[in-house]
């Protein structure tokens, strides 16, 4: 309307003379121009409306292939998650003891930690690359996130050893872990074991081999070939992972609850990969970092192949895994599910948390099997012999996967 009055009406009346005949002529031009203008605007409006309707239709028709992190869910608060984990750890006796704490793997902090008191425990295949790029940004780098390389080198960040030394100098004795981490906002990120394992398989097996097969997978399925489907290769991988005869050594495929010490370290926030985008602002507020953007996930920035992170594709990759093998996989990651509240593949809330699910119904038989094994071998943790060490190596993401035959003795 403003454009019309300024451009059309103004230009015509500017050329009008004072005679009655010319005023009538101007009035006619004014009427015709106004009508034409309104017709054009109506056409534009109709076109935009059609585009919006088309977008709504397409969005609805593709509901089955939206990324996993965008599936409908009820977001749990930071305190809800922590309270649930603490209750579960206590219920199942997974704490080391009252007042004690244990260091999770690879605790790092920004070198300028006086400004940003963030202490992050890195959990592979749970958005650790994004978190470390964010920490590089906190340290003053203006480099675009997509150009940041080698972000998994420990030397890039401050370490716990440095914090220990500072606290020792301050109090005049060797500090405890709790004393050292008090000033920091302590966070880690966990992920549904079903999608975490699949992500690790894609990254460490499919993308890093020409055939999509590693030797230990042939131990599980000798008939596997390069032409086998990705789902068949993944089934062989899972079979090898849970086998009593094969030991796979790779920290990307171990349990999270024990590696990240979720029962024994005083976290202030345990985020979920599936909802990090919604949770990250709260974390930034606690570490004086609201002015910084957090990098997107691999799927958000286009590093994942199209459709890889959809619910449909995930179920397709698990389609060759039968009920018995799936039960063994749930047993392998038993405490990741029970302690963090994650949902199984057939749960409507998958891959998100389901803190209200009936854990005795879903996992009761696996818990009984676990307890019977522990009774048979006192003093051991029978979840599975595969565990990640807590050694801080110079890098972890590109660690090669190795395996060995388990000793029958």
* Assembly status: single chain
Biggest sheet, spatial arrangement of strands: 3-1-2-4-6
Number of helices: 15
Q: How would the global form be characterised?
A: globular
Mean pLDDT: 82
Helix content: 40-55%
Structural category is alpha/beta
N-to-C CA distance? 87 Å
Largest sheet: 5 strands, mixed
Order of helices and strands: HHHEEHEHHEHHHEHEHHHHHE
Q: Strand percentage, roughly? A: 5-15%
What's the total number of strands?
7
Q: What radius of gyration results from the CA coordinates?
A: 29 Å
Spans of at least 5 consecutive residues with low confidence: 11-18, 28-32, 56-66, 299-304, 380-398
Structural commentary:
The protein is of the alpha/beta class. It has helices at 2-14, 20-61, 78-91, 128-138, 160-171, 177-181, 193-206, 215-220, 230-242, 256-259, 276-286, 311-317, 323-332, 334-340, 359-376, and strands at 107-109, 118-121, 158-159, 185-190, 246-249, 269-272, 402-405. The strands form 2 sheets. Strands 3-1-2-4-6 form a 5-stranded mixed beta sheet. It has a two-stranded antiparallel sheet with strand order 5-7. 46% of the residues lie in helices and 7% in strands. The chain has 15 helices and 7 strands. The relative contact order is 0.14. Helix 1 runs antiparallel to helix 2 (20-61) and helix 9 crosses helix 13. The protein is globular and about 90 Å long.
């Amino acid at each position: 309307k403003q454009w019309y009055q300024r451009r059309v009406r103004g230009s015509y009346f500017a050329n009008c003379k004072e005679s009655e005949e010319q005023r009538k002529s101007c009035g006619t031009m004014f009427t015709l121009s106004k009508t034409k203008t309104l017709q054009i605007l109506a056409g534009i409006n109709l076109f935009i409306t059609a585009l919006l309707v088309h977008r709504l239709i397409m969005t609805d028709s593709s509901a089955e292939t939206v990324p996993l992190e965008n599936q409908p869910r009820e977001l749990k608060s930071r305190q809800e998650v922590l309270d649930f984990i603490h209750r579960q750890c206590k219920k199942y006796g997974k704490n080391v003891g009252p007042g004690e704490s244990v260091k999770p793997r690879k605790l790092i902090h920004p070198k300028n930690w006086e400004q940003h008191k963030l202490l992050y425990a890195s959990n592979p295949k749970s958005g650790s690359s994004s978190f470390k790029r964010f920490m590089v940004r906190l340290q003053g780098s203006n480099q675009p996130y997509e150009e940041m390389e080698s972000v998994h080198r420990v030397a890039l960040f401050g370490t716990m050893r440095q914090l220990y030394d500072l606290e020792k100098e301050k109090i005049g004795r060797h500090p405890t872990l709790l004393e050292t981490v008090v000033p920091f906002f302590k966070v880690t990120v966990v992920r549904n074991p079903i999608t975490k394992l699949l992500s690790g398989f894609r990254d460490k097996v499919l993308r890093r081999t020409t055939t999509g097969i590693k030797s230990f997978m042939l131990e599980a399925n000798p008939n596997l070939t390069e032409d086998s489907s990705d789902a068949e290769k993944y089934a062989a991988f899972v079979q090898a992972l849970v086998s009593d005869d094969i030991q796979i050594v790779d920290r990307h495929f171990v349990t999270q609850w024990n590696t990240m010490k979720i029962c024994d370290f005083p976290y202030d926030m345990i985020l979920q990969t599936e909802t990090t985008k919604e949770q990250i602002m709260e974390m930034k507020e606690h570490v004086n970092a609201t002015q910084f953007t957090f990098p997107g996930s691999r799927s958000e920035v286009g590093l994942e192949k199209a459709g890889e992170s959809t619910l449909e594709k995930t179920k397709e990759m698990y389609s060759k895994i039968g009920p018995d093998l799936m039960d063994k996989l749930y047993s392998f990651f038993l405490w990741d599910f029970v302690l963090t509240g994650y949902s199984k593949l057939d749960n409507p809330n998958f891959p998100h948390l389901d803190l209200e699910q009936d854990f005795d119904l879903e996992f009761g038989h696996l818990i009984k099997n676990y307890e019977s094994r522990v009774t048979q071998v006192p003093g051991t943790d029978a979840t599975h012999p595969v565990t990640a060490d807590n050694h801080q190596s110079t890098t972890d993401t590109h660690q090669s996967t190795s395996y060995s035959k388990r000793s029958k003795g």
